[in-house]
Amino acid sequence: MPDVRAVHWDEQRSALVLLDQTRLPAEVRHLVVEEISVLLDAIQRLVVRGAPALGVVGAYGVAVAMQQGAREGWTAARMSDEIARIASARPTAVNLSWGVARADARRSDGVAAVLAEAHAIAEEDIGANRELSRIGADWVCDRVGHRPLRVLTHCNTGALATAGWGTALGIVRELHARGLIEAVYADETRPLLQGSRLTAWELADEGIPCFVLADGAAASTAQRGLVDVAIVGADRVARNGDTANKIGTLGVALAARHAGIPFVVAAPSTTVDPTVSSGDDIVIEMRPEEEVLTFAGTPVAPGRVRGFNPAFDVTPHDLIAAVVTEHAAVTPTGADVAEILRGIA
Ligand code: MRU
């Protein structure tokens, strides 16, 4: 596996460092973050993205705010406002506000304590991803068969989207380690191409066979019998198992149901939101119209039309064969599954 660190804290600089995912795969470049305005811009431009990675960034962001506040003499009210801005920089992935809140709870103990909390969140995320990958791979083998598999995935859920290893892509990695991956079909994931730019980059680096396909090709590929299982990540899982994930995920779930293959959601328990009872209550981020009206900066629609650009959709629980966390693989039936998924029940 390549040494992909989407997020880390540079001790010497005492600064947050992000791998700039907007430049991949063309260029590996890092962004040093020492100010909240830079952090907010990085989160909103998707320099760093993916729910678990956003949780880690949110936690380190509290340390960035504390250091900037100390340099600039912020009032307590200003500090709280800036930290709240980090938490709400993107609304759909629950991990961002969760990571901020967890680190913020240590603020009164000083920057070192906040950093220790952020490091712990990152470590825990890697551990959770490894465990859910084992559970998910076992579930897939039991359900689909212990044989080389063709997996369809959407968006990027790998090391780049997490503190390391990955969720849905973590299951793919685990299956590959068991010699059970024939091929991965990676939806390109319009409009920002997390599938072709990031997932394919991660898989190619490890020699895992991968086809990039247009999002619109996913349904027919499944329908033609070329896919054994669809595995995706999550930005927020509601108590009943309804799952928000990258726009286009619902289409994959509907296609999987029609093709008779299982549709699996993989996420660490930190992505399960016990305060949200169903997908109806999940806020869907709307992104700039230009992202769908242009391609690589070139207009691809007439100037007089508007763009409509929801970043996520919600897949209803009844289309999901299993939600997999580091605690359990659960088939949601409409009952409250949050505590099982969070390892509390
Ligand atoms: O807009 P993004 O790139 O942050 O969206 C990411 C996704 O939808 C991922 O599937 C999800 O966050 C899970 S990442 C392990």
Architecture blueprint of SSEs:
Layout: E1 7-10, E2 15-19, E3 30-33, H1 36-45, H2 51-72, H3 76-87, H4 94-104, H5 111-144, E4 149-153, H6 168-177, E5 181-187, H7 194-206, E6 210-213, H8 218-223, E7 229-232, E8 236-237, E9 243-246, H9 249-259, E10 263-266, H10 290-293, E11 294-295, E12 298-299, E13 312-315, E14 322-324, E15 329-330, H11 338-341
Parallel strand pairs: 4-5, 4-7, 5-6, 7-10, 10-14
Antiparallel strand pairs: 1-2, 2-3, 8-9, 9-13, 11-12, 14-15
Bound molecules: 5-S-methyl-1-O-phosphono-5-thio-D-ribulose.
What does this 3D model show about the protein?
The structure is a single chain. The radius of gyration is 19 Å and the shape is globular. A hairpin with a 2-residue loop joins β11 (294-295) and β12. The longest helix is centred in the middle third of the chain and has 34 residues, at 111-144. With 345 residues, the protein is an alpha/beta fold. The protein folds into two domains: 7-124, Up-down Bundle (Four Helix Bundle (Hemerythrin (Met), subunit A)); 134-341, Translation initiation factor eif-2b, domain 2 (Rossmann fold, 3-Layer(aba) Sandwich), CATH 3.40.50. α4 (94-104) runs antiparallel to α5 (111-144). Helices cover 40% and strands 16% of the residues. The mean pLDDT is 97. 5-S-methyl-1-O-phosphono-5-thio-D-ribulose is lined by residues 46, 49-52, 93, 155, 157, 161-162, 167, 194, 233-235, 245-246, 311.
Keywords, please?
345 residues, alpha/beta, Four Helix Bundle (Hemerythrin (Met), subunit A), Rossmann fold, 2 domains, 3-stranded antiparallel sheet, binds 5-S-methyl-1-O-phosphono-5-thio-D-ribulose
